[in-house]
Amino acid sequence: MIASVQADERPNILFIFSDDHALKTIGAYNPEFTADNPLNVTPNIDRIAEEGAVFTRSFCTNSICQPSRASILTGKHSHKNGVISNGSKWDPSQLVFPRLLSENGYQTAMIGKWHMHPTPSTEFDYHKTLTGHGGQGRYYQPSFINFDGEEVVEQGFSTDLITDYSIEWMKNRDKTKPFLMMCQYKAPHTNVVPALRHMREFKEDIPVPDNFFDTFDGRSEYMKNTWMSMHGVSAPEVLKTIGKEGTYDAENYMIPNPDFKPGQKGRNNRRTVKNPALFMVPFTAEERKAWHAHYDPINEDYFKRRESGELADGTKELSLYRYQRYMNDYLGCVQGIDENVGRLLQFLEDEGLADNTIVVYSSDQGFLLGEHGLTDKRTAYEESMMMPFVIRWPGHITPGQRNESIIQNIDYSATFLDAAGIEVPEEIQGRSMLPLFKGETPADWRKSLYYHYYQTGAYNLPKIEAVRSERYKLIRGYGHKNAKLAEIGEQWELFDLEKDPNEMTNLYNNPEYASVRQQMKEELDNMREKYEVEAD
Fold it and tell me: Which of 4, 22, 170, 254 has the fewest CB atoms within 10 Å around its CB?
C-alpha cells in the first residue's frame, strides 16, 4: 500500500482512548439529544465530531480490553497478534505502529491504561502506565509504573492525572519532530467511581432501554445463562454499612476502611482478600467526608424504600432503581473524560498545534448499559461490538461528516501510518481510512466484518464468533468451558438489523430467511479464509 501523505506534511497524532464507553452516552452518536437530556454530557467529544467526522459503524474485532488494544497497536485480529483474552501475554517484539512512527522520525508516548502484560518496553519512546487493581489502576490515588520501571502512587483522580501527564509530555517534547500521544483513560470502566466534582444529584430520569427486560426467548441458550445481568454493579445493598468505622464490604471497593487488614474476609465475600487496596478507594480524609456527604442521604432513602416494600426483591422496580444508580455514576465518569478532552483540545490551541494535529477519540469497545438487561461487553450484540470513533484533521476532513462505512480497530494503525507518509506493511490486516475522510466510501471498501471473542467461561459465556454485513448479523456461540453448558452445543443467532436494530428476533430457523442464512454462513467462511482463522 502506497502512502498518500508526503513526509513534509506529517501531522501530529493525539489519540484519546477510554475504556467501555457506550455510544448512547456520546452526543455525536445521538443527534436527537437536547440540552436537558440527562445523557448529554460530552460537548468536547462532540466538538471533535463537529469539526471533523463521526463514524457510525465502527467496531472492534474482539470486545474485551486487552485484545482490542492489541488489535489497535498491530492492525491484526487477536489470533494473529496473540492476545485473544485478558490473560494473554503480550509479545512486545511484534510489529506495532508506534514503533514504526518512531523509526520514521516521530516522537511517541503512551500515558494511562495499558492493561496488557508485560508493561511497555520498546513500543514507545516514553510511557507512564497505570498499574494495580488487576492492571486497571484505581480511580483515586492511582499507581503508575514510570518509564524507568519505578512504581509510584500519585495523588489525585485518575482521569485528571493522565491528562496532566499527557499535556506535560507534549509541552516538553522534542519540538523538531512530529508526535504521537496515546492518552488512555481507565474511565468509565466498572466499578464506576466518578470524581467528587462529578457526583451527580440522584434523579431517576435516565432513559431505560426498550429491551431492558429481555428474556432471550428463541435466542441463544448461552445468553440465558450469562452472569452479565444488570442486577447491581454498585448495588446499594453493599453500601449499607457505609459510614460506619470498622466495617468493610469487599464486594464494593468504593467503601474505604483504613482498619481493614490483609487476609481479613469481608462481608458477603467468598474469598480472602490478600490486598485490600485492590478493593478500596484510598480516599483522603477530605475526600471520604465529601463521599459520605453525597451518598449517605441517597442510601438512607434507598433503604427506607426497601423496608416499605417499594423496592422489594425480584421486582422490576428494584431492577430499574439499580439501573439508575449505576447510570448516574457511569455518566459522572464520562463527564470527567469529556472535561479532560476539552483540556487537551485547549492545549493544542494554546500551543498553535490544532491545525496540524489529528485528534481521535475512541474506546476499546462499547458497553451494554441495560440493553437486553445486561452490563459489560464481550457479546456480539451491537452495543458491545461498536466502539466510538470520532476524528478531526483540519484541512483533510470536511467538518460535520457522518460516515456509515464499516470500520474496525484493525484499521487504526494503517490509518495513522498512511497519514504520516509511511508505507503500510502487508502483514497489517486493516486498511487505511484516509480515502473515507473525503466523505465517500470506495467501491472496494469492506461490506462485512469478522468478530471473534475467545475468553470462554468469563461471565459464564462461551466463545463467540460473528460476521456482520451492512444489514445482517450471524452469531455463533460455541465451546463453553463448563462441561455441562458445553453440551448445549453450537447456538446460532441471525438478525435483520434493518428491521430489528435491537436484536430481539432470531431469524436463524425462519424459512423466509433461509437464503440469508446461507449467504451469511458463506460470508463467515470467507472471513475465516481472508483472515487466516483456524477451524475451531
Answer: 4
DSSP assignment of 295-338, as one string?
HHHHHHHHHHHHHTTTT-TT-HHHHHHHHHHHHHHHHHHHHHHH
Neighbouring-strand partners of residue 193 = none
Helices (H), 272-314: 285-307
Using CA atoms, how far apart are residues 333 and 252, in angstroms rounded to an integer? 17
> Phi first, then psi: what are they for 415, rounded to 5°?
-65, -45
Q: Around Cβ 510, how many Cβ atoms within 10 Å? A: 14
* Number of CB atoms found within 10 A of residue 155's CB: 10
Q: Tell me the C-alpha distance between 181 and 44, whole Å.
A: 18
pLDDT tens-digit series, residues 342-359: 999 999 999 999 999 999
pTM of the model: 0.92
Q: Kindly state the cell numbers that stand for 302.
A: 434507598
At 91-120, the pLDDT tens digits run 999 999 999 999 999 999 999 999 999 999
Grid cell 442464512 in the structure block, residue: 517
C-alpha cell at position 485: 453448558
Assign 276 to helix, strand or coil: helix
d(CA 365, CA 18): 9
> Cα separation of 61 and 71, whole Å?
8
Question: 3-class DSSP state for residue 463?
Answer: strand
Among the listed residues 202, 222, 223, the one whose alpha carbon sits nearest the alpha carbon of residue 214: 223
